[in-house]
Amino acid sequence: MNFENILVDEHNGLGTITINRPKKLNALNKATIQELHEAFKKLDTNHTIKVILITGSGEKAFVAGADISEFAHFSVEEGGKLAAKGQELLFDFVENLSTPVIALINGFALGGGLELAMACHFRIASENAKMGLPETSLGVIPGYGGTQRLPQLIGKGKAMELIMTAGMISAEEAKNLGLVNHVVPQEELLSLAQKIAGKIMNNSSVAISKAIKAVNDSTKNINGFETEIKQFGACFGTEDFKEGTNAFLEKRKADFPGK
User: Fold this and answer.
1) Which are the contacts of 12, defined by CB distance < 8 A and separation ≥ 6?
2) What are the two backbone dihedrals, phi and then psi, of residue 55, each rounded to the nearest 5 degrees?
3) What does DSSP say about strands 14-19 and 6-11: parallel, antiparallel, or unpaired?
4) To 5 degrees, how large is the angle CA 50–CA 52–CA 56?
5) Could you give the residue numbers annotated as active site?
6) Can you give the pTM of this predicted structure?
7) Which of the residues 22, 97, 111, 189 has the least number of beta carbons within 10 Å of its own beta carbon?
Protein backbone atom coordinates (compact mmCIF):
# COMPACT_ATOMS: atom_id res chain seq x y z
CA MET A 1 0.00 0.00 0.00
CA ASN A 2 1.45 3.34 -1.08
CA PHE A 3 0.15 6.51 0.56
CA GLU A 4 1.24 10.15 0.77
CA ASN A 5 0.33 10.86 4.40
CA ILE A 6 0.69 7.54 6.21
CA LEU A 7 3.05 4.59 6.41
CA VAL A 8 1.79 1.01 6.68
CA ASP A 9 3.80 -2.02 7.77
CA GLU A 10 2.70 -5.64 8.01
CA HIS A 11 4.87 -8.12 9.92
CA ASN A 12 4.16 -11.36 11.77
CA GLY A 13 0.43 -10.78 12.10
CA LEU A 14 0.82 -7.17 13.20
CA GLY A 15 -0.25 -4.19 11.11
CA THR A 16 1.27 -0.83 12.03
CA ILE A 17 -0.06 2.48 10.69
CA THR A 18 2.03 5.63 11.20
CA ILE A 19 0.52 9.01 10.41
CA ASN A 20 3.39 10.70 8.61
CA ARG A 21 2.89 14.47 8.47
CA PRO A 22 5.56 15.60 10.96
CA LYS A 23 5.71 19.20 9.68
CA LYS A 24 1.99 19.49 10.46
CA LEU A 25 2.37 17.55 13.73
CA ASN A 26 0.44 14.76 11.97
CA ALA A 27 -2.75 16.84 11.78
CA LEU A 28 -5.72 15.15 10.14
CA ASN A 29 -6.87 16.54 6.81
CA LYS A 30 -9.39 15.03 4.40
CA ALA A 31 -6.73 13.19 2.43
CA THR A 32 -5.22 11.63 5.56
CA ILE A 33 -8.64 10.54 6.83
CA GLN A 34 -9.34 8.88 3.48
CA GLU A 35 -5.97 7.12 3.46
CA LEU A 36 -6.48 5.92 7.03
CA HIS A 37 -9.87 4.51 6.05
CA GLU A 38 -8.34 2.61 3.16
CA ALA A 39 -5.45 1.29 5.28
CA PHE A 40 -7.69 0.14 8.14
CA LYS A 41 -10.11 -1.50 5.71
CA LYS A 42 -7.37 -3.42 3.94
CA LEU A 43 -5.71 -4.57 7.17
CA ASP A 44 -9.05 -5.61 8.66
CA THR A 45 -9.86 -7.81 5.66
CA ASN A 46 -6.40 -9.38 5.70
CA HIS A 47 -6.95 -12.43 7.91
CA THR A 48 -3.23 -12.79 8.58
CA ILE A 49 -3.33 -9.47 10.50
CA LYS A 50 -4.44 -10.10 14.07
CA VAL A 51 -3.77 -6.68 15.69
CA ILE A 52 -3.43 -3.14 14.31
CA LEU A 53 -1.28 -0.43 15.93
CA ILE A 54 -1.61 3.25 15.07
CA THR A 55 0.81 6.03 16.01
CA GLY A 56 2.28 9.30 14.77
CA SER A 57 5.67 9.95 13.19
CA GLY A 58 8.33 11.80 15.16
CA GLU A 59 8.54 12.36 18.90
CA LYS A 60 6.21 15.35 19.30
CA ALA A 61 2.75 14.26 18.25
CA PHE A 62 0.38 11.38 17.78
CA VAL A 63 -2.06 13.73 16.04
CA ALA A 64 -2.12 17.38 17.09
CA GLY A 65 -5.68 17.93 15.83
CA ALA A 66 -7.49 18.50 12.58
CA ASP A 67 -6.14 20.66 9.79
CA ILE A 68 -8.10 23.83 10.62
CA SER A 69 -7.16 25.55 7.37
CA GLU A 70 -9.40 23.09 5.51
CA PHE A 71 -12.64 24.11 7.21
CA ALA A 72 -12.15 27.60 8.67
CA HIS A 73 -14.60 29.11 6.15
CA PHE A 74 -17.17 26.27 6.04
CA SER A 75 -20.92 26.94 6.19
CA VAL A 76 -23.28 25.28 8.68
CA GLU A 77 -24.17 22.62 6.12
CA GLU A 78 -20.55 22.01 5.17
CA GLY A 79 -19.58 21.68 8.84
CA GLY A 80 -22.24 19.07 9.47
CA LYS A 81 -21.19 17.09 6.42
CA LEU A 82 -17.53 17.26 7.53
CA ALA A 83 -18.34 15.68 10.89
CA ALA A 84 -20.68 13.06 9.41
CA LYS A 85 -18.23 11.99 6.72
CA GLY A 86 -15.28 11.87 9.10
CA GLN A 87 -17.17 9.73 11.59
CA GLU A 88 -18.31 7.37 8.86
CA LEU A 89 -14.92 7.01 7.15
CA LEU A 90 -12.64 6.81 10.17
CA PHE A 91 -13.81 7.22 13.74
CA ASP A 92 -16.89 4.98 13.82
CA PHE A 93 -15.20 2.74 11.27
CA VAL A 94 -12.20 2.11 13.55
CA GLU A 95 -14.36 1.57 16.62
CA ASN A 96 -16.34 -1.13 14.85
CA LEU A 97 -13.43 -2.97 13.21
CA SER A 98 -13.31 -6.68 13.99
CA THR A 99 -9.52 -6.47 14.33
CA PRO A 100 -8.26 -5.00 17.63
CA VAL A 101 -6.77 -1.52 17.25
CA ILE A 102 -4.34 -0.08 19.80
CA ALA A 103 -3.44 3.62 19.79
CA LEU A 104 0.18 4.45 20.65
CA ILE A 105 -0.02 8.06 21.84
CA ASN A 106 3.55 9.28 21.42
CA GLY A 107 3.05 13.01 22.02
CA PHE A 108 0.23 15.51 21.55
CA ALA A 109 -3.20 13.96 20.97
CA LEU A 110 -5.47 16.96 20.62
CA GLY A 111 -8.90 17.46 19.08
CA GLY A 112 -9.33 15.00 16.24
CA GLY A 113 -6.16 13.25 17.41
CA LEU A 114 -7.63 12.39 20.79
CA GLU A 115 -10.89 11.49 19.08
CA LEU A 116 -9.02 9.04 16.85
CA ALA A 117 -7.24 7.53 19.85
CA MET A 118 -10.57 7.17 21.69
CA ALA A 119 -12.09 5.39 18.69
CA CYS A 120 -9.40 2.72 19.01
CA HIS A 121 -10.15 -0.24 21.25
CA PHE A 122 -7.66 0.92 23.87
CA ARG A 123 -4.72 3.27 24.29
CA ILE A 124 -1.18 3.34 25.66
CA ALA A 125 0.91 6.49 25.96
CA SER A 126 4.45 7.75 26.30
CA GLU A 127 5.38 9.85 29.30
CA ASN A 128 5.54 13.04 27.22
CA ALA A 129 2.01 12.66 25.84
CA LYS A 130 -0.51 15.46 26.30
CA MET A 131 -4.21 15.00 25.58
CA GLY A 132 -7.17 17.33 25.24
CA LEU A 133 -10.14 18.58 23.23
CA PRO A 134 -9.44 22.29 22.57
CA GLU A 135 -12.33 22.84 20.15
CA THR A 136 -14.33 25.26 22.33
CA SER A 137 -11.36 27.65 22.23
CA LEU A 138 -12.00 27.84 18.48
CA GLY A 139 -15.73 28.41 18.78
CA VAL A 140 -16.73 24.86 17.88
CA ILE A 141 -17.21 21.52 19.64
CA PRO A 142 -15.58 18.13 19.08
CA GLY A 143 -17.21 16.69 15.95
CA TYR A 144 -15.56 13.33 15.51
CA GLY A 145 -17.17 11.59 18.48
CA GLY A 146 -15.34 13.39 21.28
CA THR A 147 -18.46 14.48 23.16
CA GLN A 148 -19.65 10.87 23.19
CA ARG A 149 -16.54 8.75 23.77
CA LEU A 150 -14.79 10.92 26.36
CA PRO A 151 -17.66 10.72 28.91
CA GLN A 152 -17.89 6.96 28.33
CA LEU A 153 -14.19 6.58 29.13
CA ILE A 154 -13.65 9.01 32.01
CA GLY A 155 -17.13 9.99 33.25
CA LYS A 156 -19.43 12.89 32.46
CA GLY A 157 -18.16 15.42 34.98
CA LYS A 158 -14.47 15.27 34.07
CA ALA A 159 -15.31 15.12 30.37
CA MET A 160 -17.44 18.25 30.70
CA GLU A 161 -14.56 20.03 32.44
CA LEU A 162 -12.01 19.08 29.79
CA ILE A 163 -14.30 20.08 26.93
CA MET A 164 -15.42 23.36 28.51
CA THR A 165 -11.94 24.47 29.60
CA ALA A 166 -10.28 23.25 26.37
CA GLY A 167 -7.50 22.09 28.67
CA MET A 168 -4.82 19.43 28.33
CA ILE A 169 -3.97 16.59 30.66
CA SER A 170 -0.72 14.67 31.10
CA ALA A 171 -0.23 11.01 30.28
CA GLU A 172 -0.20 10.12 33.96
CA GLU A 173 -3.46 11.95 34.62
CA ALA A 174 -4.97 10.26 31.56
CA LYS A 175 -3.96 6.90 33.03
CA ASN A 176 -5.50 7.77 36.40
CA LEU A 177 -8.74 8.70 34.64
CA GLY A 178 -8.81 5.45 32.64
CA LEU A 179 -8.28 7.20 29.31
CA VAL A 180 -5.06 5.26 28.67
CA ASN A 181 -4.10 1.82 29.99
CA HIS A 182 -0.32 2.20 30.32
CA VAL A 183 2.28 4.99 30.40
CA VAL A 184 5.93 4.26 29.57
CA PRO A 185 9.01 6.15 28.37
CA GLN A 186 8.71 6.95 24.68
CA GLU A 187 11.46 4.55 23.68
CA GLU A 188 9.50 1.69 25.29
CA LEU A 189 6.11 2.50 23.72
CA LEU A 190 6.38 0.31 20.64
CA SER A 191 7.87 -2.66 22.48
CA LEU A 192 5.05 -2.55 25.05
CA ALA A 193 2.47 -2.41 22.26
CA GLN A 194 4.06 -5.36 20.53
CA LYS A 195 4.12 -7.31 23.80
CA ILE A 196 0.42 -6.68 24.39
CA ALA A 197 -0.36 -7.48 20.76
CA GLY A 198 1.50 -10.78 21.13
CA LYS A 199 -0.76 -11.76 24.02
CA ILE A 200 -3.84 -10.88 21.97
CA MET A 201 -2.59 -12.96 19.04
CA ASN A 202 -2.44 -16.05 21.26
CA ASN A 203 -6.23 -15.97 21.53
CA SER A 204 -9.07 -16.59 19.09
CA SER A 205 -9.41 -13.74 16.59
CA VAL A 206 -13.00 -14.84 15.96
CA ALA A 207 -13.90 -14.64 19.65
CA ILE A 208 -12.13 -11.29 19.97
CA SER A 209 -14.14 -9.81 17.10
CA LYS A 210 -17.36 -10.94 18.77
CA ALA A 211 -16.22 -9.49 22.11
CA ILE A 212 -15.53 -6.14 20.43
CA LYS A 213 -19.10 -6.04 19.10
CA ALA A 214 -20.60 -6.96 22.47
CA VAL A 215 -18.57 -4.36 24.37
CA ASN A 216 -19.30 -1.66 21.77
CA ASP A 217 -23.02 -2.34 21.95
CA SER A 218 -22.93 -1.73 25.71
CA THR A 219 -22.12 1.93 25.03
CA LYS A 220 -24.87 2.45 22.45
CA ASN A 221 -28.66 2.48 22.58
CA ILE A 222 -28.58 -1.29 22.15
CA ASN A 223 -29.13 -4.06 24.70
CA GLY A 224 -25.55 -5.19 25.19
CA PHE A 225 -26.65 -8.22 27.20
CA GLU A 226 -28.65 -9.48 24.23
CA THR A 227 -25.65 -8.91 21.96
CA GLU A 228 -23.44 -10.85 24.39
CA ILE A 229 -25.86 -13.79 24.45
CA LYS A 230 -26.07 -13.86 20.65
CA GLN A 231 -22.30 -13.56 20.13
CA PHE A 232 -21.58 -16.11 22.88
CA GLY A 233 -23.87 -18.61 21.18
CA ALA A 234 -22.34 -17.90 17.77
CA CYS A 235 -18.91 -18.85 19.12
CA PHE A 236 -20.10 -22.44 19.53
CA GLY A 237 -20.36 -22.80 15.77
CA THR A 238 -16.76 -21.75 15.08
CA GLU A 239 -13.67 -23.83 14.44
CA ASP A 240 -11.83 -21.67 16.98
CA PHE A 241 -14.22 -22.84 19.71
CA LYS A 242 -13.65 -26.48 18.82
CA GLU A 243 -9.88 -25.99 18.80
CA GLY A 244 -9.85 -23.98 22.01
CA THR A 245 -11.94 -26.44 24.00
CA ASN A 246 -10.12 -29.49 22.60
CA ALA A 247 -6.76 -27.92 23.41
CA PHE A 248 -7.89 -27.23 26.98
CA LEU A 249 -9.14 -30.78 27.48
CA GLU A 250 -5.97 -32.21 25.90
CA LYS A 251 -3.77 -29.94 28.04
CA ARG A 252 -2.01 -28.32 25.09
CA LYS A 253 -1.69 -24.84 23.61
CA ALA A 254 -4.45 -23.94 21.19
CA ASP A 255 -3.64 -23.32 17.53
CA PHE A 256 -6.60 -21.23 16.42
CA PRO A 257 -7.45 -21.34 12.70
CA GLY A 258 -9.27 -18.00 12.88
CA LYS A 259 -12.54 -19.46 11.59
Assistant:
1) none
2) -150, 180
3) antiparallel
4) 165
5) 115, 135
6) 0.95
7) 22
CA distances from 230 to 42, 84, 234, 236 (A): 27, 30, 6, 11
Longest dimension (CA), the chain: 65
Average pLDDT estimate for 84-101 = 97
Distance from C-alpha of 84 to C-alpha of 89, rounded to nearest angstrom: 9
CATH topology of domain 6-201: 2-enoyl-CoA Hydratase; Chain A, domain 1 (3.90.226)
* Three-state secondary-structure class, residue 162: helix
pLDDT at 1 > cutoff 70: no
CA dist list (Å): 232 to 31, 207, 211, 216, 249: 39, 8, 9, 15, 20
pLDDT digits (tens, 9 = 90+) for 43-85: 999 999 999 999 999 999 999 998 888 888 999 999 999 999 9
